[in-house]
Fold this sequence. Notes:
Low-confidence stretches: none
Protein name: Dihydrolipoyl dehydrogenase
Oligomer: single chain
Family: Belongs to the class-I pyridine nucleotide-disulfide oxidoreductase family.
Keywords: FAD, Flavoprotein, NAD, Nucleotide-binding
Mean pLDDT: 94
Cofactor: FAD
CATH architecture of the largest domain: 3-Layer(bba) Sandwich
Largest sheet: 8 strands, mixed
Structural class: alpha/beta
Pfam families: Pyr_redox_2, Pyr_redox_dim
Amino acid sequence: MIWKAGDNMKVIQCDVAVIGAGSAGLSAYRAARTHDKHVLLIEGGAYGTTCARVGCMPSKLLIAAAETAHAVATADGFGIHVADMQIDGKAVMQRVRSERDRFVGFVLESVDGIPEADRLRGQARFLAPNRLQVGDDVEVQAARIVIATGSRPAIPDGLRELGTHLIVNDDVFDWEDLPDSVAVIGAGVIGLELGQALHRLGVRVAVFGRGDRLAQIADEAVNQKAIDSIGADIDLRMQTEVLSTHLVGDEVELQSRDANGKTRTERFRFVLAATGRRPNVDQLRLEVTGLQLDDKGIPLFDSLTMQCGESAIFLAGDVTNDRPLLHEAADEGRIAGDNAARFPEVADGLRRLPLSIAFTDPQIASVGKTARDLEQNSYMTGTVSFDNQGRSRVMRQNHGLLKLYGERGTHRFLGAEMVGPRAEHLAHLLAWSCQSGLTVGQMLDMPFYHPVIEEGVRTALRDLKENLLKQVNDIEHCSDCTPGI
């Protein structure tokens, strides 16, 4: 229902208001609509999800071009000699932008399918727990609200003075040509993926990591293998602090200091800030909702219901600062939208096993629980190196390490961390096994073809099984040692 209130303020009443039309917001809208509720979708920026516009898809387009260039550049390892390879930066970026726009177009078609009366454009902010102001002249009165406002790149204060020479991943995919040099600040997933791709496309790249961990890898051995493998391909500088940056003509002069205290001064065309993302909560005026907020200003919420306390407000997607991945955002949106529509009778939703992948070369992946999540002495590990794994050597992709975790006593498979060839596929295989609750023995009973990379998983499973069995006392092998039997 819509009516005028006051001189110029239009008031809209609805059952559920969803703030944000990204992956989580669209999922929340559709879930709430299945309950035959009046749902309003509010968006303050351009339609089209982070994944389609500046995330998953355009980055993979750039990576695909880089992989092709790398395959040609290293073909001589197979006895195939390619003379005078040339990388046309304008053509590379033209394809990235064109295909990116196609993916965004699919999202826009989906949004166009939503009734116009259910869509509202403008920045939203809370006036009360159940009231929003959108733009300057609209008030939304909603019985329940889903916050799905996403996130944005976090930019260190010391870099802001660089103006147009400071870029974030969003900017890369609008380039019309490849630059000659880029300094990447941050050795997380975004920094590694883009840094390695640009390097392989002929851009001079240095990746600066302040800490000693790549892409939040928990296991020390896997992390070191990732550093060694990826560092052999690109200029990767871990435990290095950026001391200063300033403009000199049309370049950025950057001074850094490594772990040994050695300083270095260089010039780059651009500085790419890949230092994480910041949830978009600062413009929402959440203080008027009465919700309990964490130290980053994000409402505390139940990850199974997405409900904030006992309120009629729900969170979904990257704004939660929990699992900033597309499949998680879609799941959270579905749960939040469903529970917003059924409020106050909320229910736990399906949260899938944690699964994350970095599309570097070699790829990095994490499945389920790792040493960071497990109690000491509650698990055993099994490992395999890909350095001499058969199919990996055939493809000249024999770099990496896989570590598996199994529960002592039950032998239940708990999770894995890896850096290695085609880890995206191994990770899915292991995630399905783990979410299905399989034991290590049951996984070993599954078929393994030859020669495939998955045989490396079998080797690691055998190692894990042997280590688990070492913990079994002789008496546990006795089927029934009850006296008198």
